Amino acid sequence: MTTSTAPAAASYAISAWPDNAAVMDRLNALLKLPVRGIRKDALPTVLDYFEKKCRTSKALAARTAEVIPGGVQHNLAFNYPFPLAATRCEGAYLWDADGNRYIDFLQAGGPTLLGSNYPPVREKVHALLDECGPVTGLFHEYELKLAELIRSHMPNVEMFRMLGSGTEAVMGAIRLARAYTGRRRVIKVGGAYHGWSDQVVYGMRVPGTGRREAVGIPRGSTASTQEVFPNDLAALRRKLQINRLRGGTAAVVVEPLGPESGTRPVTRDYNAGVRALCDEFGALLVFDEVVTGFRVGMGGAQGYFGVRPDLTVFGKCLTGGYLMAGGIGGSKEVMMLLAGGIGTSSRRAFVGGTLSANPLSCAAGYHALSEMARTDAPVLAGRAGDRLCRGLNEIIDRLGLPFVAYNFGSIVHLQTSAVLLMSMRNPIKLMREASARKHAMEEMGAAYLAHGVLTLAGSRIYTSMADTDEVIDDALGRFEAVFRLV
Questions:
Q1: What mean pLDDT do residues 414-422 have?
Q2: What's the confidence (pLDDT) of residue 350?
Q3: CATH code of the domain covering residue 349
Q4: Are 385 and 346 in contact (CB under 8 A)?
Q5: Among 283, 329, 411, 417, which lies 20 to 30 A Cα-Cα from 434?
Q6: Does any domain span residue 210?
């Protein structure tokens, strides 16, 4: 697949930007084809693995379904035919409750760039816990050290406010943008996930769906939220123009690689185009770097693209996988509206969180980011992603399959059913085929698991610094074995 070389420094994980037109052509071609999943004669063998090798997980899943709605606490934990119970993680591998080992390309949804349970960070966290415990309620020096470290790496962060999750950080960033601009409308890119707060459960995962998933959310909560289709700068301009007649736009929120970490990839110059439009219409540009922050490079996607967001949202990568990971960064002028304290008379955007910026999270973040910088982990993980993606495409082409693999460094996309590319631009096809395509993707994910590879929903792969050439080559052999079942 043709790629365009990105003018990024060696400190960034993306060696070449995917040719967006070529990727989209292949994805659209895949979407037009009938679903090609695991053969009916091969599926019983795949499912037999779970029945015979995952009995503890199956028993736990049955019990869990009685006390936890849906049997899982979050989407990452869902696997077909039932959720697996993990007991151990180390480097490139994860073990389930039955002792089965998997090559871990889930990596907790992306944050463990150093590899799972990285010892140098774990030792520092243990020392902190022995000294003062996870939380004090007072200021701890690690808050300062983490904020200074983030500022030293992120080119557009002068000040930083720690919060408890990416969802909280998006909530705070939108509130801050409205407070700073005095405007209320917020535009997001359809299909992107920015957490589960009321105002952004809108156009999630499937562009054009608006309030489709906003069950239990009053219409007033999303009344000022709007969406535009990915890569459509003309539509964004029109939305900004209309909003200007109605009081203006507070912020445009984007995932800089494209919705769902580039599942719907943007063109190389898309973010620069959004920046220009925000400048023209006086809106703040918010980069959601929950995944890309530090995984694309220590300077995040903003450093890679050379595009200045007004606000940056951080999440799980901030602490390398440890708990309570979230925050907002930006210029001092904007960020001072988040000034904390009791009884202040100045105008501010109020955010809180008793456990935010706790010593455990801040220490984990400081040492995880320090280790990422010291080891050049983003680049090493990106090289592993490049090797994996090249290998996947070689297998796909050799076997004559219509599947599509592309990557942004250590974020590798493997589309086999194209369900994630459906949208409301073809609502009839969406209604007719979404369920079957989704199930085919789940069966592929199950087949990967039965062959010892853990992915995110059978369609996304996160590589880490722990993924050596040997690990990647082993994984490619396992992927080929699955592809031969199609």
A1: 91
A2: 87
A3: 3.40.640.10
A4: no
A5: 411
A6: yes
Residue type, 334: V
- The answer to whether 194 and 371 have CB atoms below 8 angstroms apart is no
Q: What is the C-alpha to C-alpha distance for residues 85 and 102, in angstroms, rounded to an integer?
A: 12
pTM: 0.94
Burial call 218-237: b when 16+ CB within 10 Å, e when fewer = eeebbebbbbbbbbebeebb
- Same domain as 328, residue 225: yes
Residue position matching structure tokens 């009884």: 343
Catalytic residue status for 467: no
Q: How confident is the model at residue 73 (pLDDT cuts 50, 70, 90)?
A: confident
Same domain, 105 and 70: yes
* Pairwise CA distance, residues 122 & 117, whole Å: 7
Token code pair at residue 311: 């606000």
Q: Which residue type, as a one-letter code, is found at position 418?
A: A
Residues 228-249 have pLDDT tens digits of 999 999 999 999 999 999 999 9
Task: Kindly give the pairing relationship between strand 284-288 and strand 17-18.
Answer: unpaired
Residues 349 and 406 in one domain: no
Q: Are 250 and 217 in contact (CB under 8 A)?
A: no
d(CA 344, CA 96) in angstroms, rounded, equals 51
Catalytic residue among 304, 316, 322, 467: 316
Is the residue at 123 inside a domain? no
Residue 343: pLDDT over 80: no
| Annotation marks residue 288 as catalytic | yes
Residue 160 and residue 330: Cα distance in Å, rounded? 7
Residue 426: CB partners within 8 Å, gap ≥ 6?
none
Query: What is the pLDDT of the chain when averaged over all its residues?
Result: 94
Annotated catalytic residue, options 19, 96, 104, 288: 288
- pLDDT confidence band for 453 (50 / 70 / 90): very high
Q: 193, 270, 322, 448: which is the annotated catalytic residue?
A: 193
47 contacts: CB under 8 Å, gap ≥ 6: 81, 446
